[in-house]
């Protein structure tokens, strides 16, 4: 078998993106298509990315995976996509695919994996609830067995792109009488079933990426359960853990934002010259550059340890916290540098860079919450790395 050549793989990804990256509006973070036309474009683009083998390469060969796939590929792909600011596949198909491959039946894999690859099915993640976010195991949505079906009742929230999804990766409580993690099951939910109502939410960014999803006596075939009954916590933890490639891409984003910020400082005119002529602005930019450099080195070390199987308990919380805080600070400075124009909304022609910094700042809040909020990360650090007393929950 030929040795994996990281440089030639990177060149292939880069050349493909240079030639084919679609002219879709770039919005920072994990966002949903804004209308039917965008939805169709995102699906077509996502399908191409699977066809190229940039995604789904680690799947079993019978479902289109590449047996010669190398684990570095996913890091290179996410790095290059971030560099190009190219959209990644829309939806939670990748997350669901890990659950199906590792815990699903051959029948489920045969039905759902090809439809994820062809983008006939877009998936959403139906985990969080109004009173179960950080404390996810407290979820209250129930699935009660009734013959060949489970009857689902309850509510989910913050479900990205649920409004335009065909399938949902659902967690629901199947046993209320055991410790909370032990009574949860996972399902592949057909979003067109009667009794499911999806209501888009409008966020402060002005876009509708999140949704509320309500279930009223939804009759879900028992064959839609992924894995064994009450094994949902293990399945969810495993599939979330498999979504690891994004770490490196976040550092690329920081670097890009820093470069754009320096460019903005050079272009921003003040009464006494350009913003970059001001020594306090230059010092702030230099301090950001130092923090970006530290975050980059930390992320590289974290990824190398992961590859070698020598991860440390500090790795995830430290990387996540340093990214989320620095990303916020850079975005805030981008808004501040604009003076009054910083009050204009994203998309306004008079706003610097069409309001990119306003969108970055409003969305920066999301990065302090998703994938474990800053406070939860600090708890992890305190408890697991510093040996401080455990959080009460
Ligand atoms: C961009 C984005 C996309 C998302 N997409 C999805 C999706 O597709 N599907 C889905 O199911 N969910 C999704 N979520 C939801 C996400 O998983 C939850 O927001 C997250 O788990 C936090 O839960 P919460 O919002 O209910 O906040 P809460 O858990 O209620 O937290 C509120 C505040 O309390 C703090 N807090 C909570 N617990 C503690 C503690 N023990 N100690 C100290 N402070 C604490 C938190 O840090 C936070 O500041 C998404 C979130 C974001 C930001």
From TrEMBL:
One of its GO terms (molecular function) is flavin adenine dinucleotide binding. Residues 230-385 form the Acyl-CoA dehydrogenase/oxidase C-terminal domain. Residues 8-118 form the Acyl-CoA dehydrogenase/oxidase N-terminal domain. SUPFAM superfamilies: Acyl-CoA dehydrogenase C-terminal domain-like, Acyl-CoA dehydrogenase NM domain-like. Its cofactor is FAD. GO terms for cellular component: plasma membrane. InterPro entries: Acyl-CoA_Oxase/DH_mid-dom, Acyl-CoA_Oxase/DH_mid-dom_sf, AcylCo_DH-like_C, AcylCo_DH/oxidase_C, AcylCoA_DH/ox_N, AcylCoA_DH/ox_N_sf, AcylCoA_DH/oxidase_NM_dom_sf, Mycobact_Acyl-CoA_DH. Residues 124-218 form the Acyl-CoA oxidase/dehydrogenase middle domain. Transmembrane segments: none annotated. The keyword Flavoprotein applies. Keywords: FAD, Flavoprotein, Oxidoreductase. Belongs to the acyl-CoA dehydrogenase family. This is Unannotated protein. It comes from freshwater metagenome.
